[in-house]
Design goal:
Length: 405
Amino acid sequence: MGRKKLMLGNEAIAQGLLEEGCSVATSYPGTPASEILASFVKIKEKNSLPAHSQWAINEKVAFEIAYAGCIAGLRTAVSMKQVGLNVASDPLMSAAYMGTKGGFVVISADDPGPHSSQTEQDSRLMAMMAKIPVLDPDSPAQAKDMISIGYDLSEAFEIPVMLRPTTRVCHSRQDIEAGKFGSFEKKAVFEKDPSRWAATPKFRFRLHTELEKKLEKIAAYEKTAPVKLNRKAASKKAVIVSGVAAAHTKEIMKDLGLWDKIPLFQVIQPYPLHRKFISSLRAGYDEVLVIEETAPVIEMQITDRRIVKGKLDGFVSGVGEIEPEAIEQMLCDFAGLKKEKIAIAQQPGRRPTLCAGCPHRASFFAIKKAAPKGIYTSDIGCYTLGLNLGAVDTVLCMGAAISQA
């Protein structure tokens, strides 16, 4: 047993990468993912580990650097926030066809809410579009454990694997067991295979066919099968959860006295959803409640709409974080429990502001003095906060300020 340390979720992910022998880790910073590579660097330097780490000019380049390492047989990882995955989508889609040699984990941190992003898009949908498996942790500890599962899955099927932590996982703290670091003795060896690594359209068709076969096998992979958390519970109703919603639902079902009454299944791998699990739901239950953030990824794969309650029928909200109070009300409605709704006063929110002494303040002042009647096109990052100073009129996406101007 290793020693326990209080770690941020992103630190736990970095610890997991180094324990699994990740030789190359790359990133482009963006909340809530920024601390992953920063922690990776800190831990590897403190322990004199020979892993390579690199901040890239953008997420696409970060992905390509890490992918180069994995096709040379090394274990690698790339981390970014969810909108950064849009930038990396070109190599992501192609890499899914080409596959991997060493294990390759793509960490895309989602931001339901959103708290610090221009969208609350769901990276699991991107995994579905790319046709790669995605793992959905409910806590920092599970995120660390899923690094090991991700590498095993990636190497077993020669495919990139996505890990999708959300803000509440990335920026929560938990006691984490720090284990031994992996081996970094393996050398990079690239074996030339033009029909795979430089595939023309003819060979891409074959690679796509092979990818579909991989997905069928991954949908039966034992290590990522859904888990029944309350084994003794029996009912014709069931609840299916994934990610942070799983952590909330476990506690709330105990508080409501439903733990021993309604089966609760946690989905580890939202895509591809295990085929036997889907069949068991149709055969064993009259009604199923699916609780997940943010898109109905699990729900869409349960094809018998007659038994499913979730986002597609409006039972579960399709926007924002699913807060514990909302989960409690859903469970009461689903189980037929009467519960008095109590309005809890919330502390008024405060607008985010620039840090004291930030040089952006002077920049915004100068811009307004130079062009008092101008249209101020802005960009993603701290300079979005020029809103509070009346110096921002548009914010579209990373790099759009110059284009729009």
